[in-house]
Amino acid sequence: MAIEDRRQRERVARRRLITATARSLAESDGWDAVTTRRLSAEIEYSQPVLYKHFGSMEDIVAAVASEGFGELAEVLRAARRRSGALPDDEVGRVAAAFSDFAATNPALYDAMFTRSTQLRFAADDTAAPLRQAFSELRGAVATIAAGRDIDMLTEVLWAALHGLVTLSRNDRLRPGHEADRIEVLLAQFRTAES
């Protein structure tokens, strides 16, 4: 058993190295620069070793995205529970945290939300990190739902935040107004609560 345990640890470590390297390359040079050839050169393993762990580049991107959703869930959870913060502004803290996460991690955000992956959302087999990120956003939305469909409100807020983030990142909106736009968006949610 000790040999099999060691082999399993090595497989997990190689898998982490592959995803961490892919993410690092994407953050520095963009996803188009992340190829199996470049990854294998960076991690000093042959391309067949990459394919032992991942069937395709899309699988690597999906693994990076899944890790990103885990990180996003942690960021949103921390925003919701920020000590000393006003409890009635939980949704505002979470929306700002979502926007900051996207701005700080552009390639990771692309893997999570814009690149093609096999990750399934809103399904019975949705991966835990994706469910956890949605759940944190949903928990904040629940504070202002006032009897409305929480899941629907969460989906609309998620989509609106994604739209704002994407348009801002692509220079389609005036720079320097990100926080103001989030506040205008949240005002619509709060107004409907009354």
Structure notes:
With 194 residues, the chain is mostly helical. Helix content is 73%, strand content 0%. It is built from nine helices and no strands. The longest helix is centred in the first third of the chain and has 28 residues, at 2-29. 28% of the residues are buried. The mean pLDDT is 92.
* Structural category: mainly alpha
Strand content: under 5%
**Total strands:** 0
Low-pLDDT sequence parts? none
Rg of Cα set? 19 Å
Query: What profile does the largest beta sheet have?
Result: none
Mean pLDDT equals 92
In DSSP terms (H or I, runs of 4 or more residues), the helix count works out at 9
**Which of globular, elongated, flat, extended, rod-shaped describes the shape?**
globular
Write the H/E string, N to C. HHHHHHHHH
Quote the distance from N terminus to C terminus: 61 Å
The proportion of residues forming helix, as a percent range, comes to: over 70%
SSE topology sketch:
Blueprint: H1 2-29, H2 36-43, H3 47-53, H4 57-80, H5 90-104, H6 106-113, H7 128-142, H8 150-169, H9 178-193
List keywords for this structure.
194 residues, single chain, 0% strand, 9 helices, 73% helix, mainly alpha
Would you kindly provide a brief summary of this structure?
The protein has helices spanning 2-29, 36-43, 47-53, 57-80, 90-104, 106-113, 128-142, 150-169, 178-193. By secondary structure, it is an all-alpha fold.
